[in-house]
Structure to design on (221 residues):
């Protein structure tokens, strides 16, 4: 497989690697960076692939943080028929093959809906949903998924984002049994765009997501 730093055009200071992860109907293209026990799995949007998350993974994978990015089935070089549930379960199991303290499932847009719907049952330690639509094909709707979520839950969006429903996501967090459960809609853009300011600098939300992966599940921004 092509080294992710070469493929995505972003070098890393921490060790990185690429592999194929067997799932139903084939395998997933997976890349990781860092060696820590605090693991984040980053799920891309419907308009992206693992390179969408790679710049963040390269920047965040320091100290005790290890990041895993993936081409979901039907994206990039991944060739598989696994459902989102099967993919997330395989990714969490893969993350736990090495000694881990926690596994935080982070998804943007489509990936956020999948993270919220599948993270609890897959054995994730926490869920971060960035602008996930309240419904996405056969995935459990956001309010239902949040209501059954008991692990830490962070949902962020822009209050003016027409590609999701801020009011529905806020209601979902209010109904959730997650501890902590935190909602913010004071952002700009959609999905991963919320992590970078107009002048190209990391936003406070980017710092918050990185902190959640590292185990600091604060509920302020």
């Amino acid at each position: 497989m092509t080294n992710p730093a070469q493929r995505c055009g972003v070098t890393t200071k921490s060790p990185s690697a690429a592999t194929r992860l067997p799932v139903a109907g084939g395998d997933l293209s997976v890349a990781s960076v860092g060696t820590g026990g605090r693991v984040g799995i980053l799920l891309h949007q419907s308009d992206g692939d693992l390179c969408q998350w790679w710049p963040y993974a390269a920047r965040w994978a320091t100290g005790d943080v290890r990041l895993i990015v993936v081409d979901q089935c039907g994206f990039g070089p991944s060739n598989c028929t696994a459902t989102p549930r099967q993919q997330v379960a395989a990714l969490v199991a893969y993350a736990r093959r090495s000694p881990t303290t926690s596994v935080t499932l982070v998804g943007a847009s489509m990936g956020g809906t999948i993270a919220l719907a599948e993270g609890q049952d897959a054995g994730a330690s926490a869920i971060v949903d960035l602008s996930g639509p309240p419904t996405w094909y056969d995935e459990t709707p956001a309010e239902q998924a949040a209501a059954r979520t008991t692990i830490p839950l962070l949902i962020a969006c822009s209050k003016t984002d027409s590609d999701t429903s801020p009011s529905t996501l806020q209601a979902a967090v209010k109904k959730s049994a997650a501890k902590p459960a935190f909602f913010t809609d004071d952002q700009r853009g959609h999905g991963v765009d919320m992590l970078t300011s107009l002048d190209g600098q990391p936003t406070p939300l980017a710092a918050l997501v990185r902190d959640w992966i590292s185990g600091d599940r604060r509920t302020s921004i």
